[in-house]
Amino acid sequence: MSDAVIVVALLLTAASATAAVAQRDPARQALVLSVLGSVLAVLFTVLQAPDVGLSQLAVGAALTPLLIMLSVRKVRRRGRTHDAAAKDGAR
Amino acid sequence: MAVNGWILAATVCLGGGGAAALWGVTTGPPARRVVAQNMTTSALCPALLLLSQGYGRPAYVDLALLLALLGPVGTLVFARLLGDDLEGGRPSAWGLTWTAAGLSAVVVAAVCAATGPGRAMVKLLVVGALLIAGNVIASRALSGGFRGVRGG
Fold this sequence. Notes:
- The complex is a heterodimer.
- By secondary structure, chain A is mainly alpha-helical.
- Chain A has helices at residues 2-22, 26-46, 50-90.
- Chain A is built from 3 helices and no strands.
- Chain B is an all-alpha fold.
- Chain B has one domain.
- The termini of chain B are far apart.
């Protein structure tokens, strides 16, 4: 019975990791990545390593998406001001 | 090993909720993706509670506590920083939100009944309250209920 849980958690991890790679937009990748972090924490719990799961939860569910989203926002903002400056220069 | 009902329930919760959340988060418009990401917390946290009961290790409840605390934080991060993409259609899935809250309440009540009164039960109740409150707060933030969250 406990094998079924491990199989389900492994399948979910593999599927979400594949989905995270297959996305094109970084913001959407961050969303899938946060799901992957949570599923990975459950996998660690199922494999009787709750201490690893705790740290994975803290890093994967909140910290990694936050960093990725902050970088995406900064890059987008810089691109916008860049475009505006280029337009002004062309005039 | 005899068939353990708690672990079976956790498997169903994990498989169903996880698969639905994964499908929602990989397809569709950005609004639906964020709602699905929020659903991950409310599907996986009851599964963790059921697992801790099934393995007979009360220490595993800590994981559910941390997930109930950090899951809504992650969703609020997305609600704040994805503001531009969400402007088109504000995601509001109140049916889903209350279904998830009901599932959490049922699971917490069942595990509470199994542990009996004491400190462990208080901890479980705290997890349940955090889970439902976090779910409702994240849903309100996503549907544009908070002005502060909106201005990205």
